[in-house]
């Protein structure tokens, strides 16, 4: 059964992870976001309890 032979597939997986880790990831992390997140002040609204007509 060739799918159980890890010899070629392990090398391909290792090579792809090394490519991602060493080449692609530093390029992606160097981007600066256009809209950086800002801290908004949380506003609390005063709620009134519901008055039930049958009580």
UniProtKB/TrEMBL annotation:
Subcellular location: Mitochondrion membrane
Key words of the record: ATP synthesis, CF(0), Hydrogen ion transport, Ion transport, Membrane, Mitochondrion, Transmembrane, Transmembrane helix, Transport
Membrane topology classification: Single-pass membrane protein
GO terms for MF: proton transmembrane transporter activity
Signal peptide location: none
This protein's GO CC annotations: mitochondrial membrane; proton-transporting ATP synthase complex
InterPro entries linked to this entry: ATP8_metazoa, ATPase_protein_8
Family assignment from sequence similarity: Belongs to the ATPase protein 8 family.
Protein name: ATP synthase complex subunit 8
Species assigned in the record: Didunculus strigirostris (Tooth-billed pigeon)
Upper lineage: Eukaryota, Metazoa, Chordata, Craniata, Vertebrata
Gene: ATP8
């Amino acid at each position: 059964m060739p799918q159980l032979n890890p010899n070629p597939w392990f090398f391909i997986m290792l090579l792809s992870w090394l490519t991602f880790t060493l080449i692609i990831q530093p390029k992606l992390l160097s981007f600066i976001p256009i809209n950086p997140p800002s801290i908004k002040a949380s506003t609390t609204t005063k709620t009134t309890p519901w008055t039930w007509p049958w009580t």
